[in-house]
Structure formats: structure tokens, C-alpha cells
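Comment on the following before class.
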Amino acid sequence: MKENGHSLVETLVAIGILLVTAGVAVPALRAYAAEANLLAAGRAFRTEFRKASSIAVRGAVQTAIRFESGPDGAFYSLYADGDGDGVQSTDILAGIDRRVAGPVPLTAGLPGVRVGINAGVPAPPPEHGLLDTADPIRFGVSDMLSFSPLGTATPGTFYLAGESAQAAVRVTGGSARVRLMVWRGGRWMER
């Protein structure tokens, strides 16, 4: 008679192989999930920036995304120019430049993603040196990203950080082109 089944040694070897494989795969899967969340957040902000540019061109009015903070945390709002001189902080406070959308919480809405810069990350080209971790929103001194009806924008960069990954949503001034870049493998890559 033939007996079917596996010996205890064979079963333990098979379980050992599965555990080693899982031990190698889990960190890679976690890194992949973290980068996927970071890219999803970057794409969401890139879409918002493009939408603001589209409103400016379509409506023939200056628009601006203003990054603000309050008692409930950081957020952003979209404003439209009300008096023909561009969106300005003083006009927002006076009620001249009206809020079109927002306030939207400045959390990426995805686990493990935050507005920030990880330590030791170099600046994306053409800049040089390491990024300053204290300033993840870089659109001039007012932290406003402005779009004109002519299709131009305030140049600057908005940084998102994950556990072990870094992303940048970069706006080019002359063309208002919005790009999503990721720091991977020792270099910045466009996504």
C-alpha cells in the first residue's frame, strides 16, 4: 500500500521557505505601497494646480492657490482676482479677491504621506545642494501659486514626503507646466 502525505521534515522545510520568501517580500511591498501613496497624493495636487490654471485661462482672470494655516492645521484655497491687480493677500483679507474653492486640508489624505521634505534629499535639477526641510512649499514669500489668463504661473515647488520616498510637484513659470517628480535610486525622475 502506498501512503500519501508529507513527513514532518518536508512540511517544516516548506514552511521555512515560505517564511524566508515572505521576509524578503514584505519590506519591498511596504516600500512599493508607500511610493504608490506618495504618487497618488502628488497626482492629486498636480490635478488641483492644473485645474486652477484652467480656471484662470478659461475665465480670463488671475487665480491663485494660497497655502494657509489655522487652528485646525494647514490647508489651501483657490482664489480669483476681484479688482484686476492679481490675487493679493491684502485683497483676500479685504474680501476683494474671493475664494473659489476650499479650504481643503493640506493632508495628502493617504497613509504615510505628508507635506514635507525628508532630510538629506538633494534639490531637483537645475538647483544644487540639499533641500531645506523647514520649507516644503516654495512659491515665493507669500506661499501663493498664481496663474494668469495668459497661461503663465508663479514658478515654484511643493514637496511631499513618505517614509522613505520624496516627491515634488513643480510648476514652471513661463508655461505653467505642472510636473510630478520622484526621488528614486539616487536621482529625480519625472512621473
